[in-house]
């Protein structure tokens, strides 16, 4: 009953609860109170689509929001020519989030891979209803899709920025899911050694390839369901 009341108040008074998220359970079986929406865009980033944003699919735990924005801020300073796109996160109240098996308690974020165009310029990954907001993009074994190439330097820099921002905000990264067949290219980037030392990236493929996006799970102390 207390959780129901809290969720009702969150809807009525969103600003009051904006910095006081509470997560329950796990990423694969959980819920969230006081979820906050990621900004639709910033100086060097944007969401994967206005319609998913309107549908409420970009909510996270407040601490995760702070980490995501903080990491983009670091990149704006150190990688000013790079642009980034984030994808699915979860609902404001958490819970099942189809088609994902996780994203249930505000601690999971999908980031679309940063890409270079044929001239080597950092550009946003094309996302629209016609490619399921970027999730139907398929990169080949050379990390190419049509005239686009995955920007492994920007990818590595972003993962490191997330790791550092998480430490600044008193949380940590549990794991990053990224296509095993493309991991060698990531580890060969300028940030590869740092990533090997500090970030868990399973070498075994999960139920989806994770080539068009990389899935990041954060660790925040959550209450039991």
Quick synopsis:
This protein is α+β, with helices and mostly antiparallel strands and 225 residues long.
Number of domains: 1
End-to-end span in angstroms? 13 Å
Kindly provide the name of the CATH class: Alpha Beta
**In which order are the strands of the major sheet placed?**
4-6-7-13-12
Helix content: 25-40%
Order of helices and strands: HHEEEEHEHEEEEEEHEHHE
Q: Number of DSSP strands?
A: 13
Q: What ranges have pLDDT less than 50 throughout 5 or more consecutive residues?
A: 1-18
**CATH level 3 topology:** Muramoyl-pentapeptide Carboxypeptidase, domain 2
Q: Give the name of the CATH architecture.
A: 2-Layer Sandwich
Gyration radius over CA: 17 Å
- Mean model confidence by pLDDT: 92
Structural classification: alpha+beta
Shape: globular
Q: What is the overall number of helices?
A: 7
> Main beta sheet: strand number and arrangement?
5 strands, mixed
Tell me what portion of residues adopts beta-strand conformation. Answer: 15-25%
């Amino acid at each position: 009953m207390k959780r129901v009341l809290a969720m009702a108040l969150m809807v009525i008074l969103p600003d009051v609860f904006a910095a006081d998220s509470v997560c329950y359970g796990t990423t694969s079986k959980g819920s969230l109170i006081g979820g906050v929406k990621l900004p639709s865009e910033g100086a060097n980033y944007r969401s994967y689509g206005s319609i998913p944003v309107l549908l409420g699919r970009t909510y996270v735990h407040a601490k995760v929001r702070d980490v995501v924005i903080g990491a983009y801020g670091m990149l704006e300073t150190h990688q000013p020519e790079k642009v980034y796109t984030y994808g699915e996160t979860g609902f404001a109240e958490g819970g099942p989030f189809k088609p994902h098996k996780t994203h249930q308690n505000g601690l999971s974020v999908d980031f679309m891979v940063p890409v270079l165009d044929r001239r080597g310029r950092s550009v946003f990954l094309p996302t629209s209803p016609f490619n399921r907001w970027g999730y139907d993009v398929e990169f080949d074994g050379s990390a190419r899709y049509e005239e686009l190439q995955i920007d492994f330097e920007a990818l590595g820099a972003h993962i490191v920025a997330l790791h550092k921002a998480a430490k600044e905000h008193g949380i940590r990264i549990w794991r990053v899911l990224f296509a095993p067949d493309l991991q060698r290219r990531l580890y060969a980037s300028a940030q590869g050694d740092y990533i090997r030392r500090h970030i868990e990236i399973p070498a075994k493929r999960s139920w989806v390839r994770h080539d068009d996006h990389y899935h990041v799970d954060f660790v925040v102390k959550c209450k039991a369901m």
